[in-house]
Write a structure and sequence with these properties.
The protein is of the alpha+beta class. It has 7 helices and 14 strands. It has 2 domains: 139 residues, 2-Layer Sandwich (Alpha-D-Glucose-1,6-Bisphosphate, Chain A, domain 4); 172 residues, START domain (Alpha-D-Glucose-1,6-Bisphosphate, Chain A, domain 4). The chain has a 7-stranded antiparallel beta sheet with strand order 1-7-6-5-4-3-2. The longest helix is centred in the middle third of the chain and has 23 residues.
């Protein structure tokens, strides 16, 4: 077989995630194996990434008892705009080709263009389709990491669900222990008993290394304030309820975290009740969505790629359209 040197394939996708988040997904071995070079019936058994120019990568997908290797070398790494690497699948062809990833910011998200050069003519259609499926997998992976939207389940009540890495005791620690909670929500010592007072110290800018401007209306008191709460239900390690802000002058709102084991995962159901009006519900939904996105990445062992305020601004626009006036 001969290589058609002029055979160049292009595949594009739009992402609602930041360029940094999309770029990093290609080089993070903890997550890349969940979408890159995976197949519906295969099992990713090995992922090795040496993320430097001249470094190598290896993905091994076991299909019907046979190990299929995807391997290559990184030629260019320019975070977060360009990644170039060689590409080979020895099981199907001795050919080594070249793949370029170019990422351009678009609003709060970005466009990604994948260019594959030097593909054999007889493999062109299958390769084009394969990259399309891979990029769709990346879209789904990033959307799942950010989490599904909160749902209004009653007057002044918003509910979120997330499936988190277990065990349940670990997730409980991220709710109740100050040092762990500070990584995704707010610091503050908590005694796990009904009636205990809790002072939460919020510092949204510290939740990730990425930085983003604070929305104007939150510049005073929105980036380092201390709020007072009371534990009103506590059943370790499955249920925790706290009073919260955003209620009426007479009755505070209430946040409940419910944890349920699911094999090696944990289902988290977060319900925020007694919110005073639509504007507060939009703010609270946007905030919890953003905090939970950080929690998911922390529990996955990753440094959050997006700044809290960057996520919040995107989510606020979305929830403005999702939460109707009561």
């Amino acid at each position: 077989m001969t290589v058609d040197a002029d055979r160049i394939l292009h595949v594009t996708r739009h992402f609602h995630a930041s360029p940094e988040r999309v770029f990093d997904a290609w080089l993070n071995p903890a997550t890349a194996g969940k979408w890159l070079f995976t197949t519906a019936t295969g099992e990713m058994t090995r992922v090795e990434i040496d993320a430097r120019v001249g470094g190598k990568y290896l993905f091994v997908d076991r299909r019907n008892g046979k190990d299929i290797e995807h391997l290559g070398e990184y030629l260019e790494i320019d975070r977060p705009t360009r990644l170039v690497f060689t590409f080979a699948v020895p099981e199907f062809s001795p050919q080594t080709t070249r793949v370029s990833i170019d990422i351009v910011p678009v609003g709060a998200g970005c466009d990604l263009t994948l260019t594959h050069e030097g593909v054999l003519a007889e493999w062109a259609d299958r390769t084009q389709q394969g990259w399309g499926m891979i990029l769709d997998g990346l879209v789904n992976s990033l959307e799942n990491a950010s989490g599904s939207y909160g749902v209004v389940v009653g007057p002044g009540t918003v509910r979120f669900q997330r499936v988190l890495p277990g065990p349940i005791e670990r997730v409980w620690a991220y709710l109740t222990e100050s040092d762990k909670r500070a990584k995704w929500l707010a610091a503050g010592e908590m005694q796990p008993r009904v009636g205990a007072s809790v002072a939460l110290h919020f510092d949204h800018a510290s939740l990730s290394l990425a930085k983003a401007p604070v929305p104007e209306r939150f510049k005073e008191g929105g980036c380092g304030d201390v709020t007072s709460h009371e534990v009103i239900r506590c059943e370790p390690p499955r249920l925790l309820s706290l009073t919260w802000g955003g209620g009426t002058a007479d009755v505070p709102s209430e946040v409940t975290f419910e944890l349920t084991p699911q094999s090696d995962k944990v289902l988290l159901v977060l319900t925020h009740r007694r919110l005073a009006g639509r504007a507060m519900a939009v703010d609270v939904a946007s905030g919890w969505h953003s905090h939970l996105a950080v929690l998911v990445e922390r529990l996955d062992g990753q440094e959050p790629a997006d700044a809290f305020w960057s996520i919040f601004s995107r989510m606020h626009d979305d929830y403005e359209g999702r939460i109707a006036a009561e």
